[in-house]
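Reopening this ticket.

The earlier resolution said the output was attached, but the attachment link was broken on my side. Pasting everything inline this time so it's all in one place.
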Amino acid sequence: MNTYGRVALVTGAAQGIGASVVRAFAECGVFVAAVDSNADGLAVRTAALSALGHQVAGYPVDVRDSAAVEELVDQVEREHGPVDILVNAAGVLRTGPVTTCTDADWSIVLSVNTTGVFNVSRSLAVRMAARNRGTIITVASNAGGVPRLGMAAYAASKAATAMFTKCLGLELAAHGIRCNVVSPGSTDTPMLRGMWPGKGESDQQAVIDGRPEAFRVGIPLRKLALPQDVADAVLFLASDRAGHITMQDLYVDGGAALKG
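Inline output:
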């Protein structure tokens, strides 16, 4: 992979899709600043990659805290050089009907999934614009474009995040900075498995088959995505091979959203 720069900053790096993105970049020789509020999980991930000889450093930061984000970006660029690639992969999920959604549930989903993306993107956009280079990729969800029962807060946060990233891409286009979205569907991560009643193979098959009573059509490719599938899409959009692609939303969902 011929990446645009040598330093990437990835949020949500302690597990799931974010961890796979960190590994994918590191295996390509990119230095990765791995960011997550889960300090213990982050330390385990970065230690394992460092033991393999990869260039990665962990930064336990809560993306909801704009002041902490500013300090983070200053520190990363001071210690490792300009960040040329930002991947917003931090996210949380709360499920249930709108009528039982608490203020706390709504607040944390929007503050992490949307405000967190705003905080980190704004901080790096200022610096990237001054340098006239860089790329920003936000991991959203196909739920941001397809209504889902019991997922209103999550879907709303991801829809807002996707449109924010596209608008940012329009603002930064004159500086040669590309901003794109990757929207996974059901991906085999701890977040997805945490939604399964039985935590087993029958739950996985139910996701693949779909649930007519919940207005879910299933996955035409007949399999869940792996975190690496999403990471591969992120790597492509970060690379020079995607040099004329900006303000796009790439669905990586096995056809589940039936997007035309």
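Reporter confirms the inline version is readable. The radius of gyration is 18 Å. Helices lie at 16-27, 39-51, 66-80, 103-131, 152-172, 190-193, 201-209, 227-238.
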